[in-house]
Design brief:
Strand order of the largest sheet of chain B: 3-4-5-6
Radius of gyration of chain B: 15 Å
Largest sheet of chain A: 7 strands, mixed
Radius of gyration of chain A: 38 Å
Low-confidence stretches of chain B: none
Number of strands of chain B: 6
CATH superfamily of the largest domain in chain A: FAD/NAD(P)-binding domain
Largest interface: A-B, 25 and 26 residues
Shape of chain B: globular
CATH architecture of the largest domain in chain A: 3-Layer(bba) Sandwich
Distance between the termini of chain B: 27 Å
Distance between the termini of chain A: 97 Å
Number of domains of chain A: 7
CATH topology of chain B: Folate-binding fold
Number of strands of chain A: 50
Low-confidence stretches of chain A: none
CATH topology of the largest domain in chain A: FAD/NAD(P)-binding domain
CATH superfamily of chain B: Folate-binding superfamily
Strand content of chain A: 25-35%
Shape of chain A: elongated
Mean pLDDT of chain B: 93
Oligomer: heterodimer
Chain lengths: ~1000, ~100
């Protein structure tokens, strides 16, 4: 049968170029210019899929983006398998491999088709009614089975090997759709001199004109007119023309998302060539020229393979040179189907009959058909079809005056071509939040009030006659560009009456007949009526109950017919029923193009410190702290984290450790009013902090809860070196700017983020001074000259430094700030100098243990946004004499000093080896049953090597009054007994830091 | 993605900006003199209008300045943007 449905001449295909492809394992031949659908039809293959719910055999229905049936899987190997693509939009290439979906074991013999026999038992809402009980069966049986049966294609499991690009573009006028309206609009707009973009989803511009070879425009054939128009646009450097580019989403302020398919149509894409490009186009003005979708007829058994839309059949004939069958029945309520009948008849197809629902169709197209001698039955309904995997008969009945039907008559045929008229594609307009209005004459919703700088042109706003479409497009393009419209073009098109029919075709087939409204979701007119009978009135509810208009199709072919059925059933006019929301994307978009380059290493920025390379070379294990990579520990040999951390902790306590603290947030606060700003901003008092001294600063939000902390050094009278937590730097700087710009603009102070200007090397341990002594110049390291919480400026290893004597470990400690690009050099010099002293590198895990042994909090670990300074034992830091600071008024609220607030305490487990879980709850007594009153939670918990036992910090209600009490942490079946102690476990006098 | 007109830099895409909550809520000069209810009002109570809303934005990845904007919460259209410290524009004047 190969090629036997191909015409001898015509179409936009290249017959001499044969293209071989496979569908369900069978090799077929098509030609260059075919789609998968047209090539299969040329081979006489209509059966292309199985329906979603009932597994009914389905043929291709349309010829474009609105195809609901012929969804196939195209594969180019692992990770390059694309499910659910419309065969009507798959361009044929040599070696194309496609498979049908939703069938097993084969398309012709599908076990799942048993659902079709079960259909009387699985109407709309079946899931909601049937799987209610027993409750337990839902998790074990119903849900797994339903999930396994759900969906159409299967997503590939291998990673996507392709690359995807992303591009931003700006233009004065964006035209969406390159049919007659869009081409005219772009051409007119381009004469305004601004940047114009024209995007079109098809492989070549032309839109509906691609199926109109005989029409002449401005004295040219449609082919030549398209070519002339495209040539003029391409010659203009201010115009960008994109084909295979679907505008799939209309976002706020004229941001249009366009998916450009770059290589899916190629047999052999170049290695590494990108597959798709996401355009985010910001347009000054948008012209939507999206065209219209043909409306099927809702009659019983209207879904057999071989039943397709009349306009689609005409496209297959005129654009692809493919006949839909040898003997066709045309069923219509609209003039356009007569064009199909006329063209097919001229191509040698036998048009058995044109069955027109309208009692007295008139007009030039009807007259032409009559003149050709085609059999026309007016006032005639199609009331059924027969056939297995292909339609064999159409059932026709005369519509009698009384609304009754005459006796049926079966006409043998191998294709039924139907048309209920055209539905303007208002998807993008609706996405732009524009308001629609119902047009009774056209039985369609049309764009009414725009929400964006946008206008529709042509068929998508209900204008169908070609001359009017060309004029409308030109007027829209010119208006968008702010210029006068060019003179109107004349065509030879014969106009059709735009009025169509909607809703269900009358029939006499009884209540069990199934007339499909939504092919993709297997929704019948019966299902819609059932939903209304069961009390669903709102169109949104009916949509969800029946699934009509859902999924990837978004109601392109089904919306208006569904509304027609609902209007009949609810006895309400359509405009009172309304329309469901059109969701983006217009047609499905790959996840790959949405992700673009943001994959793998580029998924998220990675921040590394100047010392990162050294840590890598020395075997560090890293952890992510916000975007930073931080060395967590440095295992030696076969050490696990626990062993490494114990060794690192003991090394710091007994000799010295070196730690990369470069990630600390750093903000330089400078200006005449720097101290005044710090006074107002932090809870501490700063006025009396001397130059060369440091202070631990605490920052609250205005609600009085701790937001950040860090050591602040006074570099000069008017200059502070502020440090923040690693994750809090941006937040703190933003809050500083907020208060300065909006509350205290009178202050003379500037903030500069210096986080990445400085590398910070923490040297902690009793040997720290010995190691440093030979490295610094111009700094006296003696305890008298540089005591704890002092800082000095000088040089280290010849590099300028701000040397802080601070300790987050409780040992003698220094934090060496040097310019970032010298960080690794200085680190390595300190590292070398430390070798005789047993210097040990340590990571964040050891840092955490050391600070917990000293009861130092970590903001975000001990605090959770509801802790006051006093809750975490920091009331000593508050500058109590200050008249105001951020958070002061909130801290004065009585509840902020309530005795039962959660307060920071230490916990010691009864069994020293037991380490509590961080986050574990604390309760007051043994043997409680859930739900039980919880009085606190563990915030930090470690094994302390220096103490030879576990330690924990916790926030416990009224904790400071519970010293010595035994509390419990529920754990598994029992609980762990803990004793409440102070939060400082090691060297509570602070002797070790003051040496 | 919205287009926001920074009063210092001009129109820029939304990703350059950070939202800063409701505008025209000045921190009291002397918070400690405020009673609980007044302080609560300042700290927590915010308008949630359907329609025009005066709100703060910060051109974070541009000039880094805070400014105010009148945005229609039902349409996401900006009616006006203006500098911190300037009064909320008169709606009638904006329309004119």
């Amino acid at each position: 049968m190969s090629g036997s449905f191909r015409t001898g001449i015509g179409g936009r295909i290249r017959r001499e170029r044969t293209v071989r492809f496979r569908f369900d394992g069978v090799t077929y031949a098509g030609v260059e210019g075919d789609t998968l659908a047209s090539a299969l039809l040329a081979n006489g293959v209509h059966l292309m899929g199985r329906s979603f719910k009932y597994h009914r055999p389905r043929g291709v229905l349309g010829a474009g983006a609105d195809e609901p049936n012929a969804l196939v899987e195209v594969t180019r190997g692992a990770g390059r398998t694309v499910p659910n693509v419309r065969a009507t939009q798959v361009e044929l290439y040599e070696g194309l491999e496609a498979r049908s979906q939703n069938r097993w074991p084969s398309l012709a013999l599908d076990v799942g088709a048993v659902n079709n026999l079960m259909a009387p038992f699985i109407p709309a809402g079946f899931y909601y009614k049937t799987f209610m009980w027993p409750r337990k069966a839902w998790d074990a049986l119903y849900e797994p089975v339903i999930r396994a049966a759900a969906g159409l294609g299967h997503a590939p499991t291998a990673p996507d090997p392709d690359t995807y690009l992303n591009r931003y573009a700006h233009c004065e006028v964006l035209v969406i759709g390159a049919g007659p309206a869009g081409l005219s609009a772009a051409l007119a707009a381009s004469r305004g001199g601004g940047r114009v973009m024209l995007v079109d989803e098809q492989c070549e511009p032309g839109g509906s004109l691609l199926a109109e070879p005989d029409v002449r425009i401005d004295g040219l054939s449609s082919r030549d007119w398209i070519a002339r128009t495209v040539a003029e646009l391409q010659a203009n450097p201010r115009v960008t023309l994109l084909s295979r580019a679907t505008a799939f989403g209309y976002f706020a302020h004229n941001m249009i998302a366009v998916n450009e398919r770059l290589s899916d149509h190629l047999a052999q894409p170049a290695a590494g060539a990108p597959r798709e490009r996401l355009w985010q186009i910001r347009a000054g003005e948008v012209v939507i020229a999206a065209g219209a979708h043909e409306r099927p007829l809702v009659f019983p058994d209207n879904d057999r393979p071989g039943i397709l839309l009349a306009g689609a059949a005409r496209t297959y004939l005129n654009r692809y040179g493919v006949l839909p069958g040898r003997r066709v029945v045309i069923a219509t309520g609209h003039d356009e189907a007569y064009r199909t009948a006329i063209d097919l008849s001229r191509a040698g197809v036998e048009v058995a009959v044109i069955a027109d629902l309208r009692p007295r169709p008139t007009g030039p197209l009807v007259e032409q058909a009559r003149a050709l001698g085609l059999a026309i039955r007016t006032g005639c309904a199609i009331t059924g079809s027969r056939g297995g995997l292909r339609v064999t008969h159409a059932r026709l009945s005369a519509i009698l005056a009384a609304g009754k039907l005459g006796p049926p008559d079966e006409i043998a045929c191998d294709a039924v071509l139907m048309s209920g008229g055209y539905t303007p594609s208002v998807h993008l307009f609706s996405q732009s939040r524009g308001k629609l209005r119902w047009d009774e004459a056209l039985s369609a919703f049309l764009p009414d009030v725009s929400a964006e700088r946008e206008r529709s042109a042509g068929a998508c706003r209900g204008i169908f006659a070609l001359d009017a479409v060309l004029a409308d497009g030109a007027a829209a393009g010119a208006a968008a560009a702010g210029i006068d419209a060019p003179p109107a073009l004349r065509s030879t098109a014969v106009d059709a009456d735009p009025a169509g029919v909607m809703g269900a075709v009358p029939h006499d087939r009884g209540p069990d007949a199934r007339a499909f409204v939504d092919w993709q979701n297997d929704v019948t007119s019966k299902d819609l009526k059932l939903a209304v009978r069961e009390g669903f009135q709102s169109v949104e509810h009916v949509k969800r109950y029946t699934t009509n208009g859902m999924a990837t199709d978004q109601g392109k072919t089904s919306n208006i017919n569904a509304l027609g059925v609902l209007a009949d059933e609810l006895k309400r006019p359509v405009e009172k029923i309304g329309l469901t929301t059109f969701r983006m994307p217009y047609t499905p978009v790959t996840f790959g193009v949405l992700a673009g380059m943001a994959r793998g290493d580029l998924f998220d920025p990675v921040r590394t410190t100047p010392i990162h390379g050294w840590a890598v070379e020395n075997g560090a294990v890293f952890e992510d702290v916000s975007l930073w990579k931080r060395a967590r520990y440095f295992p030696q040999g076969a050490e696990d984290m626990e062993a490494a951390v114990r060794r690192e902790c003991l090394a710091v306590r007994s000799a010295c450790g070196i730690f990369d603290a470069s990630t600390l947030g750093k903000i330089e606060v400078v200006g005449r009013d720097a101290a005044e700003f710090m006074n107002r901003f932090y809870i501490n008092a700063w006025t009396k902090l001397g130059v060369g001294r440091c202070r631990y600063g605490v920052l609250c939000r205005e609600d009085g809860f701790v937001m950040d902390d860090g050591v602040v050094g006074r570099i000069a009278q008017d200059r502070f070196h502020v440090t923040t937590t690693t994750g809090g730097a941006a937040r703190v700087l933003n809050m500083m700017e907020d208060y300065l710009q909006t509350e205290w603009p009178e202050l003379d102070v500037w903030f500069t983020s210096t986080t990445e200007e400085w590398a910070v090397i923490a040297l902690q341990g009793p040997k720290a001074r010995d190691i440093l002594s030979g490295l610094v110049e111009g700094i006296d390291l003696s305890p008298e000259a540089l005591p704890h919480m002092a800082l000095a400026e000088g040089h280290i290893c010849g590099v300028p430094t701000r040397l802080f004597r601070v300790s987050f470990s409780g040992e003698l400690g220094f934090e060496i700030n040097v310019p970032a690009d010298q960080g690794r050099t200085v680190w390595e010099a300190v590292w070398a100098a430390g070798q005789p002293h047993g210097l040990t590198p340590y990571g964040t895990e050891t840092m955490h243990v050391l600070r917990a042994e000293k009861g130092f909090i970590i903001v975000g670990q001990e605090t959770d946004g509801t802790a006051t300074p006093d809750d975490v034992a920091l009331s000593w830091a508050v500058g109590k004499a200050k008249p105001d600071y951020v958070g002061k008024r909130s801290l004065a609220r009585p509840s902020m000093s309530a005795p039962d607030r959660k307060q920071l305490v230490g916990l010691l487990t009864e069994v020293p080896e037991t380490v509590l879980q961080e986050g574990a709850q604390i309760v007051a007594s043994r043997g409680l049953k859930a739900p039980m009153p919880v009085i606190g939670h563990v915030t930090s918990s470690y094994y302390s090597a220096v103490l030879g036992r576990s330690i924990a910090l916790a926030m416990v209600s009224g904790g400071r009054a519970r010293m010595g009490e035994t509390l419990y942490s529920p754990h598994g079946a029992g609980e762990i007994a803990v004793k409440v102690v102070g939060p400082v476990f090691h060297d509570p006098e602070g002797a070790r830091v003051n040496v | 993605m919205l287009v926001i007109t920074c009063p210092y830099c001009g129109p820029r895409p939304e990703i350059e900006f950070a939202h800063g909550g409701e505008a025209h809520i000045a921190r009291p000069q002397d918070p400690s003199s405020l009673g609980v209810e007044d302080w609560t009002e300042f700290l927590y109570m915010r308008a949630n209008p359907k329609g025009l809303h005066a709100e703060r934005w910060r051109h974070l990845h541009g000039c880094a300045r805070f400014f105010n904007a009148l945005r229609d919460t039902t349409t996401d259209q900006f009616v006006a943007t203006y500098r911190t410290g300037e009064p909320r524009p008169d709606l009638a004047a904006v329309k004119a």
